[in-house]
Amino acid sequence: MHRLSFLTAGLLALALAGCSSEPLRRVDALTTSPKPLEQPIGQAHSALAAAPTCCSGIEQLPFEPLEAGFAGDVLIDTQAPAYSFKTGKSFFRAFALPAGGPSFEIRLYSQAGSSVLAPNAMLLDSRMRPTRLLDADDFAYVPPTGLKGDSLDARLRIDRSQPDHPGNERYLILYTSDAQMAGQTVLQHPAKAYAKALGNEPPSIPDPMAEHSPVGVIRLVMIPDNAAGSTVKGYVPGYSIGQEMGNELPSAPAPTVLPETSAYYRQSIDTALAQKNLERALRLADEAARVGDSTAKQHLLERIEIR
């Protein structure tokens, strides 16, 4: 996964009503990665079990506004609100995304140490309909690089090229699930990373394990399309059929696929194949099919055959 330097941005910390912790912490470009929460997992699970459920529905969650270009740490601790998602009860943080301005990419880095919060990320449109759900298949472990420590990383793009489109994604919820909390992540041993950096054979020693926890720190970085290195073109609607994400939503047709949308998926598939990332290419083809582009998979097969 490509790494970009963390962008500087301003945002005043907004406290949730009834919560004493600071849910957001601004970071600057030269700030080192935050330490993950090292609270004993047993205590965190007990706190989660005892925590009252904040709301009776998704639309009632306490959404905090995020300013364009925000870069900072999202603190999901035992003082965060709790909600009973379909995947289980979880502490969470919920955000209202910028409605206007340029399209942007969101990068998420869940910090890992002896424990890590294995995130789920839910996106909703302006009518509070879930549009996308990122889970264990979307957050990949990335070893330390530069000032960034071990983390579970994901990236997603929020489209704003059609401001009035009903499928525009307006809300983001970060949480975890029962299935995620039951797992663990294998981290790369520092000695192995050092050996690889020197071009040597990594030593045969066991790698440390990070137990999945109900609490953690997620670095969130928003990168506008006009930032250096942005190559995304074409409108990509966010709305997907809810049943494909495990949400009991009424059946609804996907938006009409524009030529620009099809071009975007083909370009992204070609880029993934050029990087020898077949898994990402397959996921892009599946995502294209969910928004109504039924020919993306055929394009992928043709590109594979050419190679």
Write the layout of secondary structure elements.
Elements lengths: L23 E3 L14 H10 L12 E3 L5 E6 L5 E4 L2 E4 L1 E4 L7 E8 L3 E2 L3 E6 L4 E5 L5 E3 L8 E8 L10 E7 L2 H4 L2 E3 L3 H8 L11 E4 L3 E9 L34 H16 L3 H13 L5 H11 L1
Helix pairs in contact: 4-5, 4-6
Order of helices and strands: EHEEEEEEEEEEEEHEHEEHHH
The strand count comes to 16
Shape: globular
| Poorly predicted runs | 1-20, 27-32, 239-254
Major pleated sheet: 6 strands, antiparallel
Number of domains: 2
Structural class: alpha+beta
**What do the pLDDT scores average to?**
78
Instruction: Supply Rg.
Output: 20 Å
Relative helix content: 10-25%
Strand content: 25-35%
Spatial ordering of strands, largest sheet: 1-3-16-7-12-11
Distance between the termini: 22 Å
- Count of runs of 4 or more consecutive helical residues: 6
